[in-house]
Design brief:
This protein is an all-beta fold. Helix content is 0%, strand content 34%. Strands 1-2-3-4 form a four-stranded antiparallel sheet, with no helix packed on it. A hairpin with a 4-residue loop joins strand 2 and strand 3. It is globular, with a radius of gyration of 12 Å. It starts with 28 loop residues before the first strand and ends with a strand. The structure holds zinc ion (ZN). The site of zinc ion has 8 residues, from loops.
């Protein structure tokens, strides 16, 4: 019996160009505070992109990580 892995936001990177793209729970994605709207933000340590869940549209978005 195969176990299915459920990918949740923050457990994997959404950047197709990232070498850790779609690797679930590999430790490259970490929490990084919240946006102004109070949405949880994650950062991929591999490609340095931030990942947020747009709750209005139910769309995941990627944006460059700004320091
Ligand atoms: Zn990445």
């Amino acid at each position: 019996m195969e176990e299915k892995q459920i990918a949740t936001i923050g457990s994997f990177c959404l950047n197709e160009k990232c070498k850790d793209y779609n690797k679930i729970n590999s430790g490259n994605v970490v929490k990084s505070g919240k946006t102004d709207k109070g949405i949880q933000r994650y950062i991929c340590k591999t490609c340095k992109k931030s990942i947020t869940l747009d709750q209005g549209n139910d769309v995941l978005s990627l944006s460059p990580y700004r320091r």
